[in-house]
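Supplementary material to the annual report.
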Amino acid sequence: MPELLSRRELNKAATRQAITDAALTLLRAQGPGNFTVEEIAESAGISRRTFFNYFSSTEAALASMTHGFLDNALQQFRQRPADEPILESARAALMQLADPMTVAPLAELFTLTQDNAVLSRSELEAWDHCTEEIISAARERFAGNPGAVVDELYLRALAGSVISCGKAAMDVWFAQCGADLSPASLAVLRQLLIDAMGHLGSGFGHPVPAAGPSATPTTATTHLLKERL
Amino acid sequence: MPELLSRRELNKAATRQAITDAALTLLRAQGPGNFTVEEIAESAGISRRTFFNYFSSTEAALASMTHGFLDNALQQFRQRPADEPILESARAALMQLADPMTVAPLAELFTLTQDNAVLSRSELEAWDHCTEEIISAARERFAGNPGAVVDELYLRALAGSVISCGKAAMDVWFAQCGADLSPASLAVLRQLLIDAMGHLGSGFGHPVPAAGPSATPTTATTHLLKERL
DNA sequence: CATGAAATTACACTACGTGCAAGTTTGCAC
DNA sequence: GTGCAAACTTGCACGTAGTGTAATTTCATG
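Predicted assembly:
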């Protein structure tokens, strides 16, 4: 069987996909909290018990999209050259995400779960998980540096701040553009990500930066980033 | 009866306290996830239903301690002069928390729930809630500035980063010192908070941090740690 | 003390999440 | 193909979470 994936793995992937599809469909139709695991299972053509073999809860099933999104970002990050400044790597990784295919599921999920406490919990967890992953990635990168003692505080503070800035950019973007995925909207998102990382890179030195989602990068872009733009 | 608190309010506060005490006691004795709401209620001398009148879940009851801790920090933040740089206000507010009475409950809670997924969720939620509160506080502060358009991205990125750095400092502290609340340990915590805010204020320019605003932060930290280990 | 508001309680009910013991499908060797 | 073992699914049962509701108790006030 010269396929890359065995039949078993294909079936599992299909089932997993069917579950998340069903969950998203129900979320669209009924709104958050207004449907049960049993309905998801029925809609996905499986038993209630099998659902729990794949996901530990409804929120986990939905949060798998966020996880996919963030794993994608992390993959981008790991591919950056090791001698690049971390902030620049993060900026580049985040930039890859301002892409219709990538943000579409997340954008919709965000608009649908905006005001729901239970669901946004899982989102928080996903972001936190990504933070931990970035810490690992950054630690590995520094570990390549011989003789350098890795400063755990620096790592954690930096990774947390990067994620916070990415999250802030997406929050502002959602608030401004909703689920709009037009090129103009995505350009806004890119600029927000750039600006957020710029603020971070410059130590948040400008309390009132000149705002403008237009083509001109705001004054907040730092020397460090300007070098590369 | 011109008491500051009516009998009703006193009773409610006492019940609330009894619940959190009971939950913490059970957490100590049985470990996370190994006790039920019914046990908490019984131990607190109330009915199961009454428990849910106070807290929506076991985790919520335990997370109320974290909320208290962070509300305290927020209160400190709001009391800072409005013309002070935000980062300095945040640093000062966080500094007030490196106090035995304040961190003690949080430290124990942290060590007890270290490896528990469900409980750390509520902790995440508490930190996120505090972030939102800081955003509000900072927005109010800027709103006092006439004619200034508040940059939502700046606010959210900054608040998120500040919280992330505070969290990073506490994570590192817990990892290094456990639940140790000795003066030396608290000094380490203070220094970690200072260093984290220093990193943030300098745009994370130094992979191996060297210069701080005063004295020699990093060496001071390691020195203190060496003393204890 | 009487009365109404607020809090507690018992009860019932739905849904969640899990262990277990079947049954079913897939992979692999013969 | 046949047989077998491992992986996967399913139904069932059980304990627990969380909530609506109505009855009961506690507290403040006239």
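The CA atoms of residues 141 and 213 of chain A lie 34 Å apart.
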